[in-house]
Design brief:
Layout (H helix, E strand, L loop, with lengths): L4 E5 L15 E7 L8 H14 E10 L27 H10 L14
Parallel strand pairs: 1-2, 2-3
Length: about 110
């Protein structure tokens, strides 16, 4: 049976609720979600909803751009990265995930060529 996966991309609207029943997803992928122009409560809601929709032992992956200090204003990046509206401090996604109930978290830092 194929894995049940739900993915949110930076270019997608954030749904009010992930369209899956509680504990039914094998994986949730948040790609650029933390870089979208979302209010803090919207971001907290989507992360908490990911926790709700994942099965026990399911996987959450977060892909995005973060900084080691606050980013002044809105970034001006080339290409598809121009869609990035905010660059959170690297501890912000971690804090949001912990508050939602996730554990066993780790960062995988990619180099400049990724």
């Amino acid at each position: 049976m194929p894995a049940a996966v739900w993915r949110h991309r930076l270019t997608d609207p954030v749904p009010d609720r992930i369209p899956h029943a509680d504990g039914t997803l094998d994986e949730v992928m948040l790609e650029g979600t933390f870089n979208a122009a979302l209010a803090p409560d919207q971001l907290a809601r989507v992360v908490a909803d990911a926790f709700r929709a994942l099965r026990p032992g399911g996987k959450l992956s977060v892909h995005g751009l973060v900084g080691d200090k606050p980013f002044p204003g809105e970034p001006r990046l080339p290409g598809m990265a121009a869609l990035v509206r905010r660059v959170p401090v690297e501890t912000e996604p971690l804090g949001a995930l912990l508050r939602a109930g996730f554990g066993g978290l780790f960062y995988e830092k990619l180099g400049d060529i990724h």
